[in-house]
Request: fold
Amino acid sequence: MSEPTQEPQRLRVVVADDQAAVREPLAAVLGLSEDIDVVAAAADGSEVLTAVAAGPVDVVLMDLRMPVMDGIETTRRLGEEYPDVAVVVLTTFADDDSILGALGAGARGYLTKNAGRQDITRAIRAAAAGQSVLDREVQDRLLATVRTKAPEQKQTLPGNLTPREREVFTLIGQGLPNRGIAEKLFVSEATVKTHINNLFAKAGIRDRADAVRRAIEAGLA
Reply:
């Protein structure tokens, strides 16, 4: 007698945006996804923290410019109080201060509001799995900023990186997402994720933004 098939765990998501005209339709659209449950909609950072405290919550889809408590401060607070909750930023702002502030506060993903439903759901799933997804515009701005600020003297990399891990590192530094790296190297995205997890552990890299910076400083990009 076969065992009953276990349904995959649905991701519990909080949608945060101060504009009801954005927040409510977005929550409704995400709720149509077969693996996502929108458990709360918040108009500011304080409401986000209240929703997460009532939990459980896997991912917060976070606007940056909100009253009471903005998205960057809320992301920082979540990292301190609820480190298992991932944050994906969804905002109209792609300036250097917003990008670096959000990623520095611990956001795992950063999308602009030009992103479609598939992009948003993919970023939510990636964040829940501990991966990062950055909008192409955001990647380009991040690369330009890091290259401008990178020191002239190249930084060294751990000597125990494999040739393939160095290839992946180089492509991260060039701004390629996991799918682009997989296509470039003719491997699966799962294989790319394994290489990224390994090189992050070996090099002591915190997140995708830190990886881009380190790759540029090491002269790989």
